[in-house]
Structure formats: structure tokens, C-alpha cells
């Protein structure tokens, strides 16, 4: 109840005076007072910061509108003014808390660290009711805001490999991330689609590995003659990379905004581009034969350590992300060098080869004062002793890590993957699949209920990931990023009892307007279409609760509600993984019989299917509907045949029969095509 009060007070305040300001992430404690402060374009700025700290704040302030870009004076204000007051002591060097005190004469931001001062300023900037669009002048309601984050790590991952983004684009996003108190930018710098960082010792990485002949990732990956690279400067070459000077500029720009940039260098998988440039590091010694480094080859370690040495010189971040995800271990099985390594080290499984590499790289990083961060596959074959696990395949990896006493960062696909659809897929540009609206991102809690108090403390934070396979353009990238990253920002900052979706939604609407005014391209939240209408209410029909016999089994991962699913009245939403859609893959068919318990008059039988081409969920190529009175002899009522149309990234289609008949048993069969195989998913067989 304690936390309801501030929301109410603000609502009242909005009612009695035209204060439109709203803050994301929502501060821990807001105490409104009588009166307000009039901020003009010439309100003076003061600080007790000295030296480099003062210079850094002054440099950042220069980028803001008046009065914030005025000169930063040393000392305390005697008359009107804004005072950045660093306290003599901080709770810890990484303390980010602050107190923002707005009186009618002065605004004071107090914090033990410059990060705290910076976050107090971000809150103030959002707390002003602006008078115009071009200055920072306006009215600030008198308040005391005491604020501190829930998690130390609040991240965003930007994939710059699948489609390269300019340095300017990265800097622009850093501005917005800092506003919402995100404090880590994880750059996915290397992947099959392109190597994006200059490494002086290995120039072929960017002469060849950063360029491809086909612009759109989807065409390059699936198209004819795809997945190849070309020399820089080839007419039509698409790609790019950051020079080491670019990286230094990004890192410094982010640091001024209290964001640490974490580089990710993928290993041992996702490295096709490296092995095209340096094929001697592949098991076969030839380019275009695999995406995995040869772990039996010492040269692999020489290469990785040399690359990481240059990377560490550019990024002061404590963490270096080494990927570790989705390595295909098949190539290692038949490689003499890899087999020799396994024998020498007494390994039985190829997963131990992967962990051998991760452990060795961890020792290397630790010896250089850095910590290893990797995707949750780094647990397999034995977790490296000091590593932090980024849990993406659900939360299990993170739970294992904290139970082993190690830190985790939660970024499960179902809540934190922003490459999914954020609204009804038929209204959206093609995305990776899934359905992750703002509300679902917002409702995520990074601390699983099953953890003890001590384990919970090892959940270091939360991160939103925006992969870019299906995002060629910059505007589309921003569209996928905002406002969903704001929900991650609030989850990372606010205590769970302080979160409230309707309240957040109204603040997010304002944030979307602000982002648009600043030249960003967020999703238009005000016109969100919302959930699939069918999914909103249970459907009633004759087969509800009737027994379903499966002649072909459903897949256990996509069992939905098990044997009840197809006759429970619950329809599926915009994605197949929502617990209402049931998936079939073995023998590429669904084949079920509903027992109506007695011979029944039937006028229609129908079922919907979903197609999401990315994960190979297709509409069926053949549907057969038949009936029987005795369960032995069936009469066919309807049959449909069609080819899979892969152009429709996400679609829904109903296959049914209408007429007059009587039957006790209804058999519904649906097969996926021979050409592509893949999944068949349906949610309900509706009988009327
Ligand atoms: C991942 O999505 N492969 C980490
Ligand atoms: Zn090998």
C-alpha cells in the first residue's frame, strides 16, 4: 500500500495543475510538496565536484538544452540555482542512488557518486513540465525524490553484426538508454553475418569478414549463393566496421553517460566470418566449412588471445562477453586435432571441448583483470569457475549459475528478446517470430520464485536483446527497441512492488511522444492493436471437454495443456508458444480423434493453424476431416491440399467443413509438407 500513495498523489497533482511530467523508471519514493520551481533558460548551475569529475559532468551538460548547457560554477548557490552536490561518502563505489530535492528557490541533487548525480539529473529532466520543445525551461513541482536501483546491471544488447549500424546510430541510442538509466550496452560485434571491429593484428577480419555481397541478412542467409563474403571495396559490398578510434569514441561517449560498453567476441561458434578470413583456424583448414573454431589447434588460442588483448585495450569494462552459444559440435567429432585434444585431456564428450576453450579463455581474461561473461551454454561441460552466465534459453541457466554461487544476468527469450513481434503480426514489419508486447516485457521479474535470499542476490540484473536478422534499417531498429527497452529499464530499476503496468503504460505513451520529438522512431504505442481477438475469451462448442485420442503424439515442449488442449475452449494468441497452441513434429503430422460420447448432429468442424516461417512452423500441406459412428469405419468429409508459401512470415488459416451430418467420432489430420518439413500447430477443434 505504501507504494500506491505516490501514484495517487501524482494523479491528484495532475488534476489540480497542468503537470505533464512523468518519469521512467519510476522513482523509489516521491514526496510531493507545496509549490514549484520555475526553471528559466538562465537558471545557474553549481557543483562541489572537482577536477575530472567536474569536467565530465560539464561536458555532458553541454549536450543538453538551456539552462543545463550553461557554465557549471564551483560552490553552493546562494540565490536560485541547481546544485549538483556530491556527498563526502558513498555506500559503495558503484552506488547509484540519489536524492532530488526541488524547492521553490533551489534544486539540489545529492549523491555519493557521479553516477548518482547523473541519475538525479535524468529524473529532473523528465520531471520538468516543459514550456517549449527546444529548451529545458519549465516548471518543476516541489518534491523530494529518493531513489535507488534494484539491480546493479541494467543492460541492452545491440546486434551490429547482422546489419552494421553507424557509430552515430550507436551514440544516438546511448543518449536514450542513459535517459532511462540503462547502464550497460552489450555490443554483439562478431557473428557469421559480419565482423565489426578493427583488429590491427588480423586485418583480414575487416578486409573480408566485414563485407558481404548481399545486403539483407535474410536474402544472404537463405538466398542462392548466400553466406559468402567479399573484399572491402567490391562494388555493392555491404557491411562495415568500427575503427579502433570509433570504439574509443563510443566507449568515452557512453562513459560520460554512465554506461559501460561490453564487447562480445563470439567463440567457439557463430564464427563463419573469421574462418572465411583465417581458414587455418577451422577443423578442415578450409573456408565455408564450419562456423566453429578448431579447439584442437593451438593457433586458435593464439588468435583468440591476440584479439582479446586488443579488445581489452579498447574496452575498460570488467566484463568481456565471449558468446559461447549455439556451437555445433559435430565438426569436432571427426577432426583429428580435436580428437587428439580430447584424448590428451581425457575428455569423453565434445561438450567438454567447448568448456575446455571457455575455461582457458577465462583464465586468460582473469589474468588480465577481467571477468568472463557468456551465454548460458557456457555451463555445459562444466561452468568456468568465475564466469557470469547470461541466461537466454529461459531462466534455467541463470538458476544453475546462482546455485553454483556465480552471478547471472537474466535475459530469457520469452521476455527479453525484442526481435519478436510487439503487436499483432499482420500489422507489423516482418520479425523473428513470437509475440512480446510491452506488457509482457514489463511483467517479467528477473528473480525466479524458487531462489533463496542468498541466491537472489547473485541475480546481477536484466537485459533486453535486440538481434537484427530481420532488421535491415535503422528506423526499424529503433521501432523494435522503443518503447520495449523502457520496460526493461523499469524492471531493472524498480522494486517489484513499485511496478504497475497501467501507470507505466501512460508514462510510456508520453515517452513515445518525447522520443518522436527527438527524432527517434518508436513503435506507436497509442495505436497498439493488442492480443489476437480469438485468444481473449474461451469459445463454447459441442466438443468442449470431450476426449481426444492422439494417433500421432504432440511434442512435449509444445504440449500446451496436454490432452485437453484441443477441446478446452482456449484459443491461441499471436505466437505458438503461449500454452494454447499445440505443436506436432514427429512424423510431420497431427492426427487426432474426438469422441463426442454419442452420435451427434454436426454442422461444422474447423480448426485454425498458425504459420511462423522463421522457426519453421508452417500451415499444413494436407488436411483431412472424417467422421465415424463406430470409430472403425470413417467417411471423409473434407480434404485440402496446398503448397507452403514461405513468403507469409506469420499467418493464420482456418480449415473446416460445413454441412449436415451425424457422427460420434471426428478425426482431424493435418500434415506438414515434404519439401520443408517443419511443425504443425493448432489450438482448438471447434465442433458445432
Ligand atoms: C542467442 O540468442 N543465441 C544468445
Ligand atoms: Zn578441430
TrEMBL record:
Glycoside hydrolase family 20 catalytic domain boundaries: 151-495
Reaction(s) this enzyme catalyzes, per UniProt: Hydrolysis of terminal non-reducing N-acetyl-D-hexosamine residues in N-acetyl-beta-D-hexosaminides
Keywords, ordered alphabetically: Glycosidase, Hydrolase
UniProt GO MF annotations: beta-N-acetylhexosaminidase activity
Active site location: 326 (proton donor)
Gene3D superfamilies recorded: Chitobiase/beta-hexosaminidase domain 2-like, Galactose-binding domain-like, Glycosidases
Similarity comment text for this entry: Belongs to the glycosyl hydrolase 20 family.
Keyword check for Secreted: no
BP terms from Gene Ontology: carbohydrate metabolic process; glycosaminoglycan metabolic process
Residues annotated as transmembrane: none
Beta-hexosaminidase bacterial type N-terminal domain mapped to chain residues: 22-147
Name listed for the protein in its UniProt record: beta-N-acetylhexosaminidase
